[in-house]
Amino acid sequence: MKKAGVLMPVFSFPGKYGIGTLGKEAYSFIDVLRDTGNKIWQVLPMGPTGFGDSPYQSFSAFAGNPYFVDLEALIEEGLLTEEDLEDPEEFDFGDGEAIALLKTLWQKKAWEGDEKARNLLSTLNQGIDKYEEEDSPFKVNYGKIYVSKFKALKLAFENYKKQGGKIDKIYKELRPETVEYCVFMAIKNNYFGASWDVWPEDLRDCEKAAVEEFKAAHKDEIDFYAFIQYLFNKQWGKLHEYAKIKGIEIIGDIPIYCAPDSADVWAHRELFQYTVKGEPKKVAGVPPDAFSATGQLWGNPLYSWDVHKKTGYEWWLSRMDYCLEMYDTLRVDHFRGFEAYYAIPYGDETAENGEWVPGPGMDLFDAMTKHYGRKDLPIIAEDLGIITDEVKELMKKTGFPGMKILQFAWDSGPDNAYLPHSLTTPNCIYYTGTHDNDTLKNWFETLPDWIRNYMYMYMSRSHNDWNAMPELLIRLSMSTVADTVIVPAGDYLGLGAEGRINTPGTSGGNWQWRMSKGAFTDEIKRKMSEIVGVYGRYYHKEEAAPVEETTPEDESLLEEESF
């Protein structure tokens, strides 16, 4: 049966405390998918993010994002209180709530004659426009989230210990690579956030004696990060189980490369192309093309594939184990890098001097087939961009479905491979757009007239259909032969530029969009159901027994069996 799904980042859910989480709104979204006949929820990478807040640059390939831990669940478990988090002088999650509470608090004190409060109120009022611009329930303020979320989690951790929580048992639930991340973050914090390549030499080089000495001296900080991962795993596990009960499949997403400043590179430098002094030899990117005269310099460290091969691809198999425990299917970014990767000399300021170097090819996927005992691995290959015959051959050998993007279909005439009539196989995922595309509405409204006119002709429509175009384009996508069609949530909601998730090549303003509460109205859900149903993609699952529609009740963190 053909399928349909929705792309929705976790950080984009509405709710309290400044950012989307694994809490009630995530459960409600799964209900929306079930109620509208959608089968799939696609997420973005869910690792812990750093500078720039991109989910594609994570501190670890084996850890969850602390920002996604639901604080309301911790309140229900008695590890936090609402009063704790609603103190505006302690917590500001960047959603505008703290500013309003502070204003009320300082007004009251000013009326009582508090001169300091009067001065603070005056300062706040003078800068209120700036605060209102930065703070919104519809946009993540990562600077404030970083401060307040970790402060809240630290408070929960202290309460957990006071209530007799067993730290040692937490570690039994964590993978060794996740524990490496916990140590990495504790060292990083000890050196004020500095990247590992400028740490003291013995820690930089991950020397066992130095690391063990640090672990002994900073056990509590490492335990704190382990506690966060335990919470993340517990909350995600329950959410994933709820999705399974409702018949919803979750597609995860992993970048092919690790971030330079990551626990993966620090703890396993031998698996990457580094010098003994801790500098990359060459870094990742893509060559110059029609869109960029100097290419794209990503800067990620490259794998030492010969070393991976000697280990039987042990690290990659472990990474796949971790990801396939979290997700039902996995989208792998920049798949063409497995056939050949673009290597740029470290220190170059552009990607012009790079060269193509053979990757592991089918050897890696043969190792996965042997490891899992199956050839039909649940992998989606991101095969966008300029794809060579060699990459096409690798795709054919693996049998992985590729990706087709509606927004890429209209600028080169009827031979464009992304046009609906050009699809040659159902073994693909058709998207109206990805996280890197504009919303359908804003994209269509800002197209050159000649492209819009071609679209009208293609669909036998006219300028009179301007306002209906986002819906018509979704319908066109659903009508293709593709086995699966995925639509970003913002397209179903008819959002303009405010709903864009990321603009490649820009810094700031990305990964911030948050949906308004109740955005999926009954009318929108009715329309979604109709669209997926008309094109034979409506999924309905008969549930074996009644299931609570609300978030499953969490057990206490203090119960030993929960470990």
What does this structure look like?
It is a single chain. Residues 549-563 have low confidence and may be disordered. The protein has a single domain (3-562), classed as TIM Barrel. The chain has 22 helices and twelve strands. The protein is globular. Helix 4 runs antiparallel to helix 5 (115-126) and helix 9 (176-190) packs across helix 12 (219-245). It is α/β, with parallel strands linked by helices and 563 residues long. Strands 9-6-3-2-1-12-11-10 form an eight-stranded parallel sheet. Helix 1 (24-35) links the parallel strand 1 (3-7) and strand 2. The chain starts with a strand and ends in a 29-residue tail after the last helix.
Task: Write the topology of this structure.
Layout: E1 3-7, H1 24-35, E2 40-42, H2 71-76, H3 82-85, H4 97-111, H5 115-126, H6 128-134, H7 142-162, H8 167-171, H9 176-190, H10 201-204, H11 208-217, H12 219-245, E3 249-254, H13 263-267, E4 282-286, E5 296-301, H14 305-310, H15 314-326, E6 329-332, E7 340-345, E8 355-358, H16 362-372, E9 379-381, H17 389-398, E10 402-405, E11 428-431, H18 440-445, H19 449-458, H20 469-478, E12 484-488, H21 489-492, H22 522-534
Summarize, please:
Helix content is 40%, strand content 10%.
The major pleated sheet works out as: 8 strands, parallel
Number of helices: 22
CATH-derived architecture: Alpha-Beta Barrel
Highest-level CATH class: Alpha Beta
Radius of gyration: 25 Å
Q: Unreliable runs, pLDDT <50, ≥5 residues?
A: 549-563
Question: How many individual β-strands?
Answer: 12
Q: Which structural class fits the helix and strand makeup? A: alpha/beta
How much of the sequence is in beta strands? 5-15%
